[in-house]
Write a sequence for this structure.
């Protein structure tokens, strides 16, 4: 289930997974946020870029649903922040517009050069020579062709750049570089609006006097290449609109959070009050190196517990019987668990176990667990610097959560995810 400001929505895997051909072509709206929506396509895109994606298919349906539910909450929060950032016109500030323009140029530059590289053709005689020399070794032949392209790319790229500079009548004015140079002094000029000023490559607010002249000339050469290639990319019709908009929608929420986090940063009095209310924060959490097996029902778990008590290995049995795919693949080795980040039922048992001792059967929503502690790292007192950072992080995190609740009230959030019956819960067929 997903809890968001008092509203409960079932996050069953079947209800938000794109499992049909229709869902793949017709986005299903999962949540509306103000005048925006979050669809199953949005959720799938975020899931596919998640660092946990490689583990997704190893999870059971309930675990998959929980992961998708968590990502859906994050998407809703991101939409809320995006709408608020736009309402504050953060996307209209000169600094953001410049950032977006530079991002677009970077995309066009890389796309143009990638296409230039892909256009390099290995001559037939070179291909034939590679095939004769590396007959029967497909990987080696592919590597040899790649080396040929790489060896010729630098030369071809330089020739292409020279041709483009000639095409656009590019002129650089390195002789103008001198101490006290004004920000609007033109250092490069060409056709179709090509223009680079001193202030474009040197932040004069940071460098009121002349930085290293050689460094400026080097930056001018780099900027000349960038601007010329970007102009060529535009003339070739290369389009990065979708990528730029994606960057915009991701960057604006982060920009708003940077602004708000600066406002929320606590002073010394706030930190002192927080510490008095949460003295336990000064202690680093305990850690346990854990072995675990998870079974589907209590009867089976009790039987396995008895086998372990009689001398069988918990880890061998976990590799054979555990219903936790991740743990089973590792023969029950769960690695280090940090206090406060695991399941409460499991942590309560770990705190009572001696090293090497095996727990009784523990029931959680994920099944029936048997755990053992292989090693432990007792918590210690945090240094003053670490404690201060943790308190600031906690205070800002709480203010962020409160801020999101405020935005949810400001921009109406409507959850459209509905629970669908599982196969076992479906209505019986007539005559059954």
């Amino acid at each position: 289930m997903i809890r968001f400001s008092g509203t409960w929505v079932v996050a069953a895997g079947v209800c938000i997974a794109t499992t049909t051909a229709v869902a793949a072509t017709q986005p299903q709206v999962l949540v509306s946020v103000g005048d925006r929506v979050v669809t199953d396509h949005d959720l799938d895109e975020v899931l596919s870029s998640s660092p946990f994606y490689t583990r997704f298919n190893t999870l059971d349906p309930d675990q998959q649903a929980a992961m998708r539910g968590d990502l859906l909450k994050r998407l809703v929060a991101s939409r809320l922040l995006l709408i608020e950032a736009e309402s504050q016109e953060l996307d209209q500030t000169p600094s953001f517009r410049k950032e977006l323009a530079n991002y677009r140029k970077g995309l066009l530059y890389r796309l143009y050069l990638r296409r230039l590289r892909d256009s390099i053709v290995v001559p037939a005689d070179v291909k034939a020579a590679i095939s004769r020399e590396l007959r029967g070794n497909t990987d080696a032949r592919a590597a040899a062709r790649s080396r040929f392209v790489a060896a010729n790319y630098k030369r071809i790229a330089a020739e292409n750049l020279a041709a483009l500079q000639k095409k656009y009548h590019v002129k650089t004015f390195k002789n103008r570089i001198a101490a006290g140079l004004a920000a609007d002094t033109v250092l490069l000029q060409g056709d179709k609006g090509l223009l680079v000023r001193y202030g474009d490559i040197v932040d004069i607010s940071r460098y009121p006097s002349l930085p290293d002249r050689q460094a400026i000339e080097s930056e001018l050469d780099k900027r000349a290449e960038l601007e010329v290639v970007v102009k060529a990319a535009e003339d070739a019709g290369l389009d990065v609109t979708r990528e730029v908009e994606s960057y915009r929608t991701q960057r604006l929420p982060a920009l708003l959070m940077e602004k708000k986090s600066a406002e929320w940063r606590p002073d010394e009095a706030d930190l002192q009050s927080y510490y008095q209310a949460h003295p336990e924060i000064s202690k680093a959490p305990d850690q346990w190196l854990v072995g675990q097996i998870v079974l589907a029902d209590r009867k089976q778990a009790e039987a396995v517990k008895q086998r372990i008590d009689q001398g069988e290995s918990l880890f061998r049995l976990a590799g054979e019987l555990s219903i936790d795919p991740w743990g089973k693949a590792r023969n029950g080795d769960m690695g280090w668990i940090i206090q406060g980040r695991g399941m409460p039922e499991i942590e309560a048992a770990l705190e009572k176990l001696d090293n090497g001792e095996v727990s009784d059967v523990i029931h959680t929503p994920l099944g029936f667990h048997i755990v053992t502690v292989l090693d432990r790292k007792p918590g210690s007192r945090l240094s003053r610097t670490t404690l201060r950072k943790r308190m600031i992080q906690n205070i800002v995190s709480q203010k962020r959560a409160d801020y999101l609740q405020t935005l949810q009230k400001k921009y109406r959030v409507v959850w459209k995810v509905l629970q669908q019956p599982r196969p076992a819960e479906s209505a019986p067929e007539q005559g059954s």
Remarks:
- Residues 1-23, 419-432 have pLDDT under 50 and may be disordered.
- Residues 159 and 206 are 36 Å apart (CA to CA).
- The longest strand covers residues 367-377.
